[in-house]
């Protein structure tokens, strides 16, 4: 029983160390100065494959595929 606990404890420590070393993907704050149109662009390698946007008192809308590498941008209204 102690061997199983030791193996489990070792696996948990190794997992915590592995997850702790991944880079953080923080969302940048919007620029100051009022309402902004928030645009999330989705890329497959270097090609733009979809976008989603909201803000500026407009309904949320989108086009294309919403999967892949995301890039967040802000545009003043």
Low-confidence stretches: none
Class by SSE composition: alpha+beta
Query: What string gives the helices and strands in order?
Result: HEEEE
Order of strands in the sheet with most strands: 3-2-1-4
Strand fraction: 35-45%
Total helix count? 1
Outline the biggest β-sheet. Answer: 4 strands, antiparallel
Q: State the share of residues found in helices, binned by percent.
A: 10-25%
Query: What is the averaged pLDDT score?
Result: 79
Give the termini distance in whole angstroms.
63 Å
Global morphology: elongated
Descriptive terms for the model:
single chain, 77 residues, alpha+beta, four-stranded antiparallel beta sheet, 25% helix
Describe the overall structure.
The protein has 77 residues and is an alpha+beta fold. Helices cover 25% and strands 43% of the residues. The chain has one helix and four strands. The protein has a four-stranded antiparallel β-sheet, with no helix packed on it.
